[in-house]
User: Which sequence fits this backbone?
């Protein structure tokens, strides 16, 4: 009976030991994915910002500029691209909507971002664009990979349509969550005007005819939870200028927008809570279950060997029977 039990325990130990690396290296990459139907939104604010009044073409200080960013998954498009890409793909339709203190639109820039559901690497397919212009992204955008590393990454800037390094600057604590801090600086770069302008009758084409150009620079900062790769907080020191041309009435340049853009407090709380929940799921697949199964396998193996050893040693030898007396011969 002991031998049979030992064999069962040995089989269970082998099963647990084999399942441990399979869960980490095989199941995790296939289960940890961005769902194709995901929808999320975020509100950011720049208080005491500088904003261009297109009516007077003068910059003025305003109490607040609001930026609403939305990301909506297109399931039908992702399924169509997956047929030729040979991997799980997510298609995000994003919109960055900027409005002034009066609620009127300042700018409105849509984009389509196509990427691998697990690695977040860009997948190049028809429809990849920013504000209607076809682009070919390199590097990440919006989200870091699962199990983010302490290193620099390539990050795509939608305004400038360029990819530049975003640098790892250290590990910090953000509201009870260990995060990696990343920072990227985009130097002054000439960028296109948005397709949709805030004033009726003004178009990118009509502005181009005046010779006026649009320039942009930003310092982009993200605090990223490394297991999920999700930013728990982000901000930008953002500046835009119009330069040259007859539109400025002889002036060399004028500030179109300048402000320190930060996530709104209620969205910070919601994001931190969501990331903490998702972090637990990643830990289950990468740490808790693999190490737990490996430990259980070792315990079962030790118990199996113990029972096997006990089965091979007999118990106490039986007591010797007294020898019968030999007959006495005369």
Assistant:
């Amino acid at each position: 009976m002991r031998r049979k039990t030992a064999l069962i325990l040995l089989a269970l130990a082998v099963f647990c030991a084999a399942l441990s690396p399979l869960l980490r290296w095989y199941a995790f990459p296939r289960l940890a994915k961005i769902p194709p139907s995901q929808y999320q939104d975020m509100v950011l604010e720049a208080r005491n910002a500088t904003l261009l009044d297109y009516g007077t073409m003068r910059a003025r200080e305003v109490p607040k500029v609001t930026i609403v960013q939305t990301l909506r998954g297109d399931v039908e498009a992702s399924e169509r691209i997956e047929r030729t890409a040979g991997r799980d793909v997510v298609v995000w339709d994003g919109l960055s909507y900027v409005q002034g203190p009066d609620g009127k639109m300042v700018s409105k820039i849509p984009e389509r971002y196509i990427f691998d559901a697990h690695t977040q690497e860009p997948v190049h397919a028809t429809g990849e664009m920013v504000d209607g212009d076809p682009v070919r992204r390199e590097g990440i955008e919006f989200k870091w990979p699962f199990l983010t590393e302490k290193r620099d990454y390539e990050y795509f800037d939608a305004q400038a349509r360029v990819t530049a390094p975003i640098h790892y600057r250290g590990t910090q604590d953000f509201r009870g969550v260990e995060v990696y801090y990343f920072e990227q600086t985009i130097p002054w770069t000439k960028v296109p005007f948005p397709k949709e302008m805030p004033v009726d009758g003004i178009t990118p084409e009509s502005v181009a005819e005046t010779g006026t150009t649009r320039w942009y620079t930003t310092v982009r900062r993200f605090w990223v939870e490394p297991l999920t790769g999700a930013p728990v907080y982000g901000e930008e020191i953002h500046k835009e200028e119009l330069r040259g041309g007859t539109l400025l009435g002889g002036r060399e340049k004028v500030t179109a927008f300048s402000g320190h853009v930060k996530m709104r407090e209620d969205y910070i709380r919601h994001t931190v809570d969501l990331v903490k929940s998702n972090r637990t799921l990643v830990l289950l697949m990468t740490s808790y279950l693999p190490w737990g199964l490996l430990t259980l396998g070792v315990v079962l193996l030790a118990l199996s060997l113990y029972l096997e050893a006990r089965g091979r040693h007999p118990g106490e030898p039986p007591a010797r029977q007294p020898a019968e007396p030999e007959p006495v011969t005369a």
